[in-house]
Amino acid sequence: RMLPRFKYEEAERPVVFQIYGDDPDEILRAALRIQELSPDIIDINLGCPAKSVASRGAGVGLMRTPQKVAKIFHSLSRALDVPVTGKIRLGWQDERNYALIARIIEENGGSAIAFHARTKEQGYGGQADWDAIAEVKAAVGIPVIGNGDVKVPEDIQRMKAHTGCEAVMIGR
Prior knowledge:
This protein has helices at 24-35, 51-54, 66-79, 98-107, 130-139, 153-163, and strands at residues 16-19, 41-46, 84-91, 112-119, 144-147, 167-169. The protein has 172 residues and is an alpha/beta fold.
């Protein structure tokens, strides 16, 4: 029933499919099926703050289990023919472990990190922490895509200059 949502035209490339979950084996099975649709990248969502997602250990909830994150990226980067990337957040108010998670993603074969510089509790409000994006950029050698508080076109260059990130993601 989900397959129709994965249809795209060649002109829409590059195509990235994002998946989430809390079971490394299930994520691997899903990624292998999705790879058959020839995406350019498969992205793992470690950033969704929705209570229904995070409370079951998926989305930003996955950031609470670094060993599971390592297993996911290790198995996917070895099993897939397409790059695997991760979208993360600062973490939780009581556990801002973004730098650790970023290093784990890189060390286990991740090709890039999109970083929404807000905590789970902030959701989409409050101020994004661009200093944290700069910290992650300094900690890893893979591309970092900054996200948060980009409201006007000038913010793109401002974020890149402040953080050193290679690209900027606009969520809304």
